[in-house]
Batch of 3 targets.
Target 1
Amino acid sequence: MLSVLGLGPLESRELINPSAWPTMQCSLNLVLSDRPMKIPKRIIPLVEDGVVDEVLRQLMSGKEATVYVVRCGSEIRCAKVYKEAAKRSFKQAVEYQEGRKGRNSRRQRAMEKRSKYGRKQQEEAWHNAEVDALYKLDRAGVRVPTPYGCFDGVLLMELVTTEDGEVAPRLNDVLLTREQALEDHEVMMGYVVKMLCAGLVHGDLSEFNVLVDDYGPVIIDLPQAVDAAANNHAKSMLERDVNNMTAYYGLSAPELLNTQFAKEMWALYEEGELHPEIQLTGYFEDDQTSADVDSVLLEIKAAFEEEEERQARIRSADEPDA
Ligand SMILES: Nc1ncnc2c1ncn2[C@@H]1O[C@H](COP(=O)(O)OP(=O)(O)OP(=O)(O)O)[C@@H](O)[C@H]1O
Ligand SMILES: [Mg+2]
């Protein structure tokens, strides 16, 4: 069980510094006894449409969005309100957009023209990208918060909590035993494989975008997810995602640091041999082709230099003696 109170060395997952975890005060019992807060402007349309009943509290304000705890009927959920494009940071960089297509060609053309209508379409595409990825990954067997739709730029999803009713901490706030780190790393590699089989690379996977509940890791924050087949940066993003995860779990289980899961996965993916239940080894033998190309280039260079020397010798032999 996840020890939110830092109970002792036998717990396999423990909060590093409970007092520093801002949502520690956000036990659901406390939230429920809170008086609902003033409804943020962007959530008003959802209340008017009856999708949300109350806003209980603000959970987090990140770089890209503000997250609230809301009540929808008898369910407590989470509402992620995206910041406007101008206030967002790196995730809308061009490399993430590559290979993304509008839902129809008129939209696609508008998005490319960057007119006011085009920018609005682009915003909508950004908002929908996360909810689409959540539905896709949920179906593919990756643990993500269950999505409940995206309305006017507000994503409604499951609030991930521990069994004690605390909002789940992020992985960077959790200390793992070696065994737990090995187990969770294996689970995480399985999720990355399933994502890739579903055609997606997270693109910003790190210990800050993984929550941990009593059953293990839950992946969040997917608006920038890239299309594995259509984006030329997909391979490098996959490597970065996997290496971030391995480096974090490797803090508790250093033997992970010698593994090469990203290379293994990508090679299988390219060969069309990756499937969701595959057992990876973490071992990958680098193809020697690049080394061969290097040695061919060296040989060409040597032959070229030899020829230059030969020409120089001929020239100096032809020159009349001084
Ligand atoms: N479904 C959820 N359940 C519980 N907590 C959540 C959930 N979704 C998000 N959070 C909390 O809100 C924080 C911000 O969410 P998220 O990472 O999706 O947004 P963000 O603005 O893109 O963040 P950042 O730019 O800081 O990575 C998370 O770090 C997490 O603590
Ligand atoms: Mg985040």
Target 2
Amino acid sequence: MSVWCKHYNGCGKHDQCTAGITYKDVVAPDLCGINAYPCFPDSVQPSLCHSRQMPTAEEIAAEDAKLAIYTKHLFAARKAIIATGQTAGSVLCPRCQDASVYFSIAPNGHIRATCPTTDCLTWIE
Ligand SMILES: [Zn+2]
């Protein structure tokens, strides 16, 4: 679960966060590393950003619960894929139960799989 500011979108990728704050304007001077930025929970100077909005404990718990369910479904799909004994094919998606997870298994055993349902299972090992 991301425990950083809700507006953080990657200071290495973007000049500004989603709240329009320019990262270099709020970084603590003479410091480096993520804690120099107010976007993170252990920031040395969180007050540098007036738009800082950290997730609540309830939001973090809800996100963790969603991730746990996603992981459970991913492992169920993975188990079903391996049980087919095939190197490519499809299995019923254990998450949405409305589509097939299409998969292929590389010679090294790594699985690539995706369910076509929006925001459903997809992974590459
Ligand atoms: Zn699905």
Target 3
Amino acid sequence: MVEILSLRKEISPISPTILGNFIKLQRCEQYLGWELLADDVTGEESRFSKSILSPLYAETGTQFEYSQLRSLINQIAADKIIGPEDKDIEGINWDETWNGNNDIIQKIKNIDESGNNKTIIAFQPSLKGKIGSWELKGYADIVIIKLNHRDQTSSSLKIQLEVIEVKSSPSDKTHHRIQAACYTLLLKNLIENEGEINENIKFSAYIVNQSNSITNKGYSDLDSFKLPPVETDVQMILKRTGRLENAITETGDSTSSGEKTIKKVDPWDMFNRITRRCDGCPYENVCYTRAVENDGLELLGIPERTKKTY
Ligand code: SF4
């Protein structure tokens, strides 16, 4: 039996990439089971291997991201470019490097009107915080911090935060938006804890892909997407007794006082329906091998709720 609080602690922080993949894989709960509950299912000691992304594909994604950053720097007269100390990218010199998780909040706080610090390009800032009931941690691709002007009616500054996720796919996908919304929510929550800067910040989010690259179409032509419905989706997944919690827990025995307990789902007991969504899942080898070995209905793509009728 597990307390939900200790389970949250045990598997946190969760990466926004995992949430994005969960959406990409048509909300496959088995995927969450492998990622969050299984011990080393594809590790060295395991008989299963991970279906890894081709190194060439991964390298293409990294180079695309760097090329978009270079174009952005060329197109925006940024006062400062901040990036990770350990990333040496051809043609880019960091003015500053990151100093731990959530350092971007200090940069937002320190933005000033003096003329030296009005627009900052933040590359891969590390963000860690809570959304709903779960702690998340990840690296946003690019955040642009812009000081617009001092509000005429108050003494506070107007700041624009633009979260840009860069993906080398041909077009914009829902799971990319989910990742961007994780970062806007993390930023909002972290900023809310900083009472003095939370009032005048406007957020927007963009997905850059091959069809609307900054390199070809330009930064000024990027279209933002509507954040609220996507942020709501993320919040629904991560809320207490939300989709994530329901996927990885089940009701256990009752205590002597009649209270219900919960326990972790055993990922090896989950039903792994094999469908087209599995193409590209890192656990395709695991699920497919198990299905073949068990002569399972998983291979027929039959939904869990109907399998008992066969
Ligand atoms: S291979 Fe298919 S069933 Fe298995 S975790 Fe991935 S998406 Fe889910």
